[in-house]
Design goal:
It is a single chain. By secondary structure, this protein is α+β, with helices and mostly antiparallel strands. About 30% of the residues lie in helices and about 15% in strands. It is built from three helices and three strands. The chain has a three-stranded antiparallel sheet with strand order 1-2-3. The protein starts with about 25 loop residues before the first strand and ends with a strand.
């Protein structure tokens, strides 16, 4: 994609809440992986046009993500994204 938003350019597309694309940093077990997102990067993603123009499957989750962005500081601890894959 042609964007400066590094959380929107690589990884698994996040159509649940329009959050960052998932690019795992660590594997916990056979079905769970973690991505570490700097608070500053998350706030930048939420403020981006990429986030604003996306229509997720769960709009209420997008609003929750926006609320999270509003209460954290760019200097806060990183945010952890957990993804669990299931065989169902």
């Amino acid at each position: 994609t042609s964007t400066d938003n590094k959380l929107y350019t690589s990884g698994l597309y996040n159509d649940f809440d329009a959050g960052p694309r998932f690019f795992p940093d660590k594997k916990l077990d056979d079905s769970t992986m973690i991505m570490i997102v700097a608070a500053k990067d998350l706030k930048s993603h939420i403020a981006s046009e990429d986030f604003k123009k996306t229509f997720p499957k769960f709009p209420e989750k997008k609003m929750e993500l926006e609320n999270l962005s509003n209460i954290i500081s760019e200097y806060d601890n990183p945010v952890l994204m957990f993804v669990r894959f299931s065989s169902k």
